[in-house]
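hey so i finally got around to running the thing on that chain from the lab meeting. sorry it took forever, my laptop kept dying and i had to restart like 3 times. anyway pasting the input first so we r on the same page abt which one it is
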Amino acid sequence: MRCRLLKSCLLSLLLGTMIAISAKAETRSFRLGAPEALAQTGFLKYLLPRFSLKTGIRIELVPEGEAAEAVIAVEAPGIPVFSGLGKDWVLAVVEPRDPHAASFEDWLAGDVGRKTIEAFKPGGTAIFAAAAARSETVRPLLVDGDAAAGERLSVRHCGRCHMVNEATRMTSIGSTPSFAVLRGLSNWHERFESFFARNPHPAFTIIDGVTEPFDSNRPPPIVPLEISLGELDAILAFVSRIPPADLGAPIQYQ
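ok and heres what got predicted. didnt touch it at all, straight out
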């Protein structure tokens, strides 16, 4: 009897773990709308799995007009991503911006995504050309706010993982980018402003009036990071004054 009860408990635990893993995997996805004419070229069947393989984010392709977190279209607001079939195509990420769709946007505009687009050559002929690379000009602005308070907040909340300043060089995690490296990205302001929606931050970040409360059945894995919008403004003011890191030549991919 005890053996049967133990087996039942182990089976329930295993089933619960598998359901939790499955639910977590399902959250790493978003829907992408695209015209049938584009889908029929086979280009998206080639492109999307390569993004998923690189990032672990699955893209569900849906017909144009259906509900989606991002849309590839022509003559619409968005960032240019490629040209082909006699048209210029843009990617429009729907508001509020889904973090996984935003990652796809970054990938398409980056070096790897652009090379992947131009490597699609059915029959040996390229059909699509990547859009021109985004300007690397960093926003020439200083964000208003208490930069000194922002540095203190960054050290307290972000210094456990990121190198915020020289004082956190030896206490940060080496695999996470430093604030100076992030400041060197062309979209640094957007990344910091929406950091709470970018993995892994949603699992442990609380911003009063912005983020939803944690599920009582899925508590944060570490001590929660709790800040207000005013404190986030102070962090942005601090980051805007950090000299961008000199990363040298672009990374060469094999």
